[in-house]
């Protein structure tokens, strides 16, 4: 499979610190996949995210995005255009005074001509379902709507990768679903690669692949079904198992005859009602 | 409470003045500041008053809004007027009581100065009443653009202004939240002597400052992630359009200046 991002043996120290935040991390991101990077606070997952678009540069090793690399200063801008990033706090990434001004911000930075800008803005608000809010001001929007505007701002730049850096952790459940569904549609219909950084394993369930970070190192990598069987590993990485998994385990301990531990609620329900 | 906060004092309406380009309005207001000083007789002041009155009517801004803007400076107007009435010793002596002498020239001078101040404030508040703060920022950035040659950070200044405007409602919401949180812990912002009340605001301001710095840092990171690298090579979505009416307005102002120059004594 073709790689869109390659992280090669990356080690990183924050200035003045003795212990590296990332220790020799190597990672391939395939084109069009949904990759979840999970880990506890301080596991280095957010630092890893900031390596992907050159917000931080590795002390050792290198990051490649298609044919570009964050090593070369001339490439950085193209890397940032290709790898869009949605941050945690919906308010603190809203630069413009209205929805359309905010979407335009990135385009203005890349010197897109005005006519083209107008076209791309109306196209990208439609893709996130915010076309009715074009002239709204940020304080009139909910957290989920602001995050969708952030996504629209990235889409307008015609990116190949969207990185969600804990983008749903400050949202209410409805806002969370809103954002995840929007991104899933972009991932499935338009083949945009999604990297979601999270400590919420429920969110990682729907990923194509999961990477577990622990103490600045890659502790495991694989499809969710395999990763979630490694309970000890997840626990030692400080992660809370998804509810259906915990429930099916508890049921098995109580003597309910389930043939395996189920990852999603739907699977578990299906298995349960079939029991005699 | 926050839904009603109007930033600046913009009065939304659709009038010829509202539709004017912010650049022409800025130039006109600035120019007006100087030509007001040309007037020195009843005729010239009459001309200025008439011009200002017509502009106010055209703007469709209700008079009570203008009055609200005038209120803070009314004391100043009255004070300077009295100063001139008592201290100018020209023309016929009208009244004398002890050391107090009022001359005809003093009254005329006092009225003129009061009119001058009122006209100045009226015209400048018309600018902010008919132009949104963000349009004023855009206009300023365009007008001051040539100063970039002398390394003046015009673009950075304009971006700072627009980001501040954008964050005013956000910070107000946050203030309200912190206030409620402190009130829930027994803080009292509304009663007691002034000194105590001022002290009560410390636990409000400290968290607000801390979070503002955090916001600023995160915003800077988000801006960088979206490819921000200063004003060079940037295009802009907001376009200012100079219409015929803008040229016309400025020509009208030139005409006014010419008449003032001719009629002044």
Automatic annotation (TrEMBL), chain A:
It is found in: Cell membrane. It is a peripheral membrane protein. PROSITE patterns: ABC_TRANSPORTER_1, ABC_TRANSPORTER_2. Residues 5-240 form the ABC transporter domain. It comes from the Bacteria. This is Energy-coupling factor transporter ATPase. SUPFAM superfamilies: P-loop containing nucleoside triphosphate hydrolases. Keywords: ATP-binding, Cell membrane, Membrane, Nucleotide-binding, Translocase, Transport. It holds the Pfam family ABC_tran. One of its GO terms (cellular component) is ATP-binding cassette (ABC) transporter complex. InterPro entries: AAA+_ATPase, ABC_transporter-like_ATP-bd, ABC_transporter-like_CS, ABC_transpr_CbiO/EcfA_su, ECF_ABC_transporter_ATP-bd, EcfA_1, P-loop_NTPase. The keyword Membrane applies. Its main location: membrane. It comes from Fictibacillus phosphorivorans. GO terms for molecular function: ATP binding; ATP hydrolysis activity; ATPase-coupled transmembrane transporter activity; cobalt ion transmembrane transporter activity. Belongs to the ABC transporter superfamily. The keyword Cell membrane applies.
UniProtKB/TrEMBL annotation, chain B:
The chain crosses the membrane at residues 29-58, 70-87, 107-129, 246-263. Coiled coil: none annotated. It is a multi-pass membrane protein. CDD domains: EcfT. Its main location: membrane. GO terms for cellular component: plasma membrane. It comes from the Bacteria. This is Energy-coupling factor transporter transmembrane protein EcfT. It comes from Fictibacillus phosphorivorans. The gene is ecfT.
């Amino acid at each position: 499979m073709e790689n869109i991002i390659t992280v090669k043996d990356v080690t990183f120290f924050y200035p003045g610190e003795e212990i590296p935040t990332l220790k020799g991390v190597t990672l391939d991101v395939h084109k069009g996949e949904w990759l979840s990077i999970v880990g506890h606070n301080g596991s280095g997952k957010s630092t890893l995210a900031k390596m992907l678009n050159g917000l931080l540069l590795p002390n050792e090793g290198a990051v490649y995005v298609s044919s570009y690399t964050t090593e070369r200063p001339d490439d950085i801008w193209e890397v940032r255009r290709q790898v869009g990033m949605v941050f945690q706090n919906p308010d603190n990434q809203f630069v413009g005074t209205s929805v359309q001004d905010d979407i335009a911000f990135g385009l203005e930075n890349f010197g897109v001509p005005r006519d083209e800008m107008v076209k791309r803005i109306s196209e990208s608000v439609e893709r996130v379902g915010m076309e009715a809010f074009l002239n709204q001001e940020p304080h009139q929007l909910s957290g989920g709507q602001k995050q969708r505007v952030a996504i629209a701002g990235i889409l307008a730049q015609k990116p190949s990768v969207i990185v969600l850096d804990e983008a749903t952790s400050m949202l209410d459940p409805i806002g969370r679903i809103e954002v995840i569904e929007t991104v899933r549609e972009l991932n499935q219909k338009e083949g945009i690669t999604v990297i979601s950084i999270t400590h919420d394993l429920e969110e990682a369930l729907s990923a194509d692949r999961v990477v577990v970070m622990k103490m600045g190192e890659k502790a495991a990598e694989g499809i969710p079904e395999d990763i979630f069987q490694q309970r000890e590993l997840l626990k030692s990485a400080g992660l809370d198992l998804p509810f259906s998994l915990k429930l099916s385990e508890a049921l098995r301990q109580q003597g309910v005859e389930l043939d395996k531990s189920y990852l999603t609620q739907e699977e578990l329900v299906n298995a349960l009602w079939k029991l005699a | 409470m926050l839904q009603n906060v109007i930033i600046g004092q913009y009065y939304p309406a659709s009038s010829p003045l509202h539709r004017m380009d912010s650049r022409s309005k800025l130039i006109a207001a600035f120019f007006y500041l100087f030509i007001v000083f040309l007037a020195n007789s009843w005729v010239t002041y009459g001309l200025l008053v008439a011009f200002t009155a017509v502009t106010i009517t055209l703007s469709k801004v209700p008079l009570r809004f203008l009055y609200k803007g005038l209120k803070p400076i009314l004391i100043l107007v009255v004070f300077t007027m009295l100063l001139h009435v008592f201290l100018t010793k020209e023309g016929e002596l009208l009244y004398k009581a002890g050391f107090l002498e009022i001359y005809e020239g003093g009254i005329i001078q006092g009225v003129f100065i009061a009119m001058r101040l009122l006209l100045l404030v009226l015209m400048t508040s018309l600018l902010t009443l008919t132009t949104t703060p963000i349009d004023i920022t855009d206009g300023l950035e365009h007008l001051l653009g040539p100063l970039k040659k002398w390394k003046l950070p015009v673009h950075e200044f304009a971006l700072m202004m627009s980001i501040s405007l954008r964050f005013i409602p956000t910070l107000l919401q946050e203030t309200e939240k912190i206030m409620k949180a402190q009130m829930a812990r027994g803080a009292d912002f509304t009663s007691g002597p002034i000194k105590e009340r001022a002290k009560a605001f410390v636990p409000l301001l400290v968290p607000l400052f801390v979070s503002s710095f955090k916001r600023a840092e995160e915003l800077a990171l988000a801006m960088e992630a979206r490819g921000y690298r200063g004003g060079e090579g940037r295009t802009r979505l907001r376009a200012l359009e100079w219409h015929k009416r803008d040229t016309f307005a400025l020509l009208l102002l030139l005409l006014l200046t010419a008449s003032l120059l001719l009629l002044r004594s």
